[in-house]
Amino acid sequence: MAPSIRLSPAACSLFDEPLAIAVQGLSPRQQVTLRTSLRDETGELFQASARYRAGDDGELDLARCPALPGGSFSGLEPMGLLWALQPQKPFWRLVKRDVQSPFLLQLDVFEGHGERPGRLLAQAQHERAFLRDGVRRVPVREGRIRATLFLPPGDGPFPGIIDLYGTGGGLPEYRACLLANHGFAVLALAFYDYEDLPKGMKEFHLEYFEEAVNYMLQHTQVKGPGIGLLGHSKGGDLCVSMASFLKGITATALINGSVANVGAVLHYKDITIPPLGINPKRIKVGKSGIADIIDALNNPLEGPDQQSFIPLEKAECCFLFIVGQDDHNWKSEFFAVEGSKRLQAHGKEKPEIVCYPGAGHYIEPPFFPMCAASKHLLFGKPVMWGGEPKAHCEAQIDAWQQIQAFFRKHLTGKPSGTSSKL
Fold first, then answer.
1. What distance in Å separates the CA atoms of residue 418 and residue 51, rounded to the nearest whole number?
2. CA-to-CA separations, 307 to 176, 208, 288, 344, in angstroms, rounded
3. The domain 136-411 is classified under which CATH number: 3.30.70.1350, 3.40.50.1820, 1.20.140.10, 3.40.50.720?
4. Is-contact 390 422, C-beta < 8 A?
5. What is the bridge-based pairing of β-strands 158-164 and 185-189?
6. How far from the centroid of its chain's Cα atoms is residue 56's Cα?
7. CB 325 within 8 A of CB 356
8. Residues 6+ apart with CB under 8 A from 116
9. Could you report the average pLDDT of every consecutive run of 10 residues in the chain (422 residues)?
10. Longest CA pairwise span in the chain (Å)
11. Same CATH fold, 136-411 and 4-129?
12. What are the strands of the beta sheet with 318-324, ordered from one edge?
């Protein structure tokens, strides 16, 4: 029997779902190298490889067989060939731009454990999709709003969430649509560098975000009385500002967010919050040319920088802070702890803080490969994001469950039995 690759699900799976990989028809105890390849929409190649030895029956099941040293990872890692994917181009991050098309994953099995691939024994292709059947993708151009709404299959109404990314700008949709697959109505909201929105990150007006909140609150498919906010990085502090000043927000989840306003002046009615100061002298650049910016921001507890601290004690919602303890973009854990102190000092409920050792800045949905360093738009050079690939991958899987459980509990009133696995 010729060797063949067995995948489950066979032809297509959702990107945040596990994929079971096995090889059958090998010789007993045969040494093989497995390689995965994936090209993003710009054509950039990501690859991972691992060395294995088949069992006595010639079967190789990645859920039972540990990878041997010498590849992209070692040990028992059923999903290692996905989370260990690395770009062949330096400082490149895997991003999904068109969620309506899947990523195509190529799997190859080669003979032996050499530095160069041996004879090709088997290959297979598999689609990693972003939209579950029946999820509706609705472009939104109402008033000033530039967004995309994702609605789950069925009649609804559904718990509603606004999803914000960080300083990359544009309109990333992949996290919003993956969340909609799990039963949420999610609005991916652009806030700069998209269509007719401002090109740069100089100042933001909270009235724009208020329009988006009101759009969701009035939508017939969105279950009231309030909605949730999900923000990563700069999107996190925008969510804190929205929760602090706007009505109709019940739950706010931050992924490595800040409780100080960062990077741009924020206006709302007659209120102005300046951005937290930056000291470029505190940026460290290593021999590789990669900058470590973790100490660049000033302390929002000292001097005039206190004006940048967002008054989150005004918020009428519950908070969840997801923290990568190896985040090198800024001090996410410090921000979470100070936000918690501020809330409790004003008699508010203590927020949930979930910390992940070994996780970096870009905590994405499950099975996105960790991005250790890439170009930072504000600094104009590659910066390190932090993280250790295996720990980061485990954090992404757990954080995804935590976020969904948090929103289910506060937006539907139904607790879900998820507890942290880390």
1. 34
2. 32, 22, 36, 19
3. 3.40.50.1820
4. no
5. parallel
6. 40
7. yes
8. none
9. 96 98 98 98 98 98 98 98 97 96 98 94 98 97 97 95 95 98 98 96 97 98 97 98 98 98 97 97 91 97 98 98 98 98 97 98 98 88 95 98 98 62 42
10. 75
11. no
12. 136-140, 147-151, 185-189, 158-164, 222-232, 249-255, 318-324, 352-356
Q: Which residues of 238-274 are buried (b: 16+ CB within 10 A; e: fewer)?
A: bbbbbbbbbebbbbbbbbbbbbbbbbbebebeeeebe
- Predicted TM-score of the model (pTM): 0.96
Q: Hey, where are the domains in the chain?
A: 4-129, 136-411
Residue 141 DSSP label = -
- Tokens standing for 135? 């999820």
Give me the pLDDT at residue 378, please.
Answer: 78
Give, in order, the Cα–Cα distances in Å from 150 to each of 86, 109, 180, 183: 29, 38, 6, 10
pLDDT at 286: 84
CB atoms within 10 A of CB 91: 16
Between CA 80 and CA 62 the distance in angstroms is 9
Query: Measured between alpha carbons, how far is 374 from 140 in angstroms, rounded to an integer?
Result: 30
Phi and psi dihedrals of 407, rounded to 5? Answer: -70, -35
The predicted pLDDT at position 414 comes to: 67
Write out the two tokens for 199: 């090109």
Q: Cα–Cα distance between 68 and 54 in angstroms, integer?
A: 11
| Residues involved in catalysis | 233, 327, 361
Q: Which fold has domain 4-129?
A: Immunoglobulin-like (2.60.40)
Of the candidates 341, 270, 271, 328, which has an alpha carbon nearest to the alpha carbon of residue 300?
341
The amino acid sitting at 135 is: V
Strands 185-189 and 203-205: unpaired
